[in-house]
Amino acid sequence: MSSFTETGLVKKLFDLNQSQQSIQTLSLWLIHHRKHHSIIVKTWLKELQRAPAAKKLTFMYLANDVIQNSKKKGPEFGREFEHVLVKAFKNVAQSSPEPKTINSLNRILGIWCDRGVYEEPKIKEYSTALNGTETIPRVEVNGSDKKRKGDSSSAAESEGAKKPRPATASTEKKAKSEVVEVNGKVETHITLSPHQPDGDPPEPEDLIKVILDLENSASSDAVVRERIASLKPEVSELAALDKLEDKEAAMKLAADVNDAIKILNDYNARLAVEMDDRKKLTTMLRDFLREQQELQQQAENRLAEYQNKLSKIKEVQKEVRNHMNNLPDLTSLPDVTGGLAPLPSAGDLFNAHHH
């Protein structure tokens, strides 16, 4: 994945389209760069407000995807979007959206409420911004409408505010095949599932941390290796049992064996952890290298593109200079007036007319 810049984010938002793949690709990129969540959400809102009415729903689908898929990575996006969603829903509502756009956004609100993405009071705030009413939208299930408890104001008053249900395993599973409407087209919005694909390149600081941690790995612990090397040969030789002459010697050997087993068990466990960490590092390095190769290729393509552009501009510069050299120098032209008197001014002509 490419590195994060605000300019790059603006371009990606500009290129965003209504397709499932476009939304998913940008969502994963944003989640990967979640440490920039503050500037991401701020830029998202600014570009949403600038976007044409027909594209605002796509921006909202992107926000929905990021909010839901980033939950397992951390709460940053959920909290950050929470502060701007009222403005976002108001902006969409004020852009004279089509009824199907409002229906699609109400469906998102219903899903958020059903899955506990946000508390019910927040969902009501968003609903008010979009619909002018606190009524919590219905969520369609298998072609029918499913009404949550507390949807009506009377039920909310009598029963009080209800805590949203946490997402269960079955709920998460359903999310993977959630069907949504995108600009009139029904699509399976697979980006609703909390899934992060393999091969996501690590941030440089994460890679550095893993490398530094491995400097203190089990295989580099010379002290423990020395203790293992200095274990008595008797603890690993069955023949030593034949040499035991009394119970005291047997108990001493048993104690030595128990100590050796503890040392080796602990060290083997550390080695197993180190082996897993090195496998993880190998994967991280592979993914990081792949990303750097992609970035290198992009840089090479960009360099070739701008070198070509520079070459064309230099050709124009050369032609301009040649053209300038071929133009006559007006200061060196002979005096063609022949010493004639200057032409009369407008005032002179006016006065002559009146005389």
UniProtKB/TrEMBL annotation:
The keyword Coiled coil applies. Pfam families: CID, CREPT. It comes from the Eukaryota. Residues 137-181 are annotated as: Disordered. Residues 1-134 form the CID domain. The keyword S-adenosyl-L-methionine does not apply. GO terms for biological process: mRNA 3'-end processing. GO terms for molecular function: RNA polymerase II complex binding. InterPro entries: CID_dom (IPR006569), ENTH_VHS (IPR008942), RPRD1A/B_C (IPR032337). Residues 278-326 form a coiled coil. Keywords: Coiled coil. SUPFAM superfamilies: ENTH/VHS domain. CDD domains: CID_RPRD1. Residues 171-181 have a biased composition (Basic and acidic residues). PANTHER family: CID DOMAIN-CONTAINING PROTEIN-RELATED, CYCLIN-DEPENDENT KINASE INHIBITOR-RELATED PROTEIN. This is CID domain-containing protein. It comes from Anopheles merus.
